[in-house]
């Protein structure tokens, strides 16, 4: 892992899924910032940008709408986004990608798959970020 540690913003309303996901990412050496809704995540993003956003179920805003906001905002549109959803419907997957998600994982997900996707997205984003 690079130094300083990469920051993952994890937005998930369900406490158990949020804690499990954060734990897996912390084991990889990421700094994980946990938020349980879009309002708290937006406030945090207004002062600091993560290296990756992982977004699951939130109730204050549609998750895909929040992804769309991130991709429309010039300040955050370069940040890779992983969408964690219980919905495997192809239309939902397409909506997420159209909104700006870089990866889509159906929950419950395989932790190894999550790890590979997050590591690859952060590495790819770092290659395209000017120093």
UniProtKB/TrEMBL annotation:
Which domain of life does the protein's organism represent? Answer: Bacteria
Matching entries from SUPFAM superfamilies are given as: CheY-like
- Keywords on record: Phosphoprotein
Provide the GO biological process annotations: phosphorelay signal transduction system
Residue ranges of every copy of the Response regulatory domain listed in the record = 7-122
Under PANTHER family, the record lists:
CHEY SUBFAMILY, STRESS RESPONSE REGULATOR PROTEIN 1
The name of this protein is: Phosphate regulon transcriptional regulatory protein PhoB
């Amino acid at each position: 892992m690079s130094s300083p540690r990469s920051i993952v913003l994890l937005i998930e309303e369900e406490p158990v899924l949020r804690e499990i996901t954060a734990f897996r990412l912390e084991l990889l050496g990421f700094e994980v910032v946990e938020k349980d809704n879009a309002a708290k995540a937006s406030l945090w993003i207004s002062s600091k940008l993560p290296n990756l956003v992982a977004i699951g179920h939130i109730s204050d805003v549609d998750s895909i709408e929040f992804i769309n906001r991130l991709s429309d905002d010039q300040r955050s549109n370069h940040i890779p986004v992983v969408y964690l959803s219980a919905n495997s419907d192809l239309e939902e997957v397409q909506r997420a990608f159209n909104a700006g998600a870089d990866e889509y994982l159906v929950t419950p997900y395989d932790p190894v798959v999550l790890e590979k996707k997050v590591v690859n997205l952060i590495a790819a984003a770092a290659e395209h970020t000017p120093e």
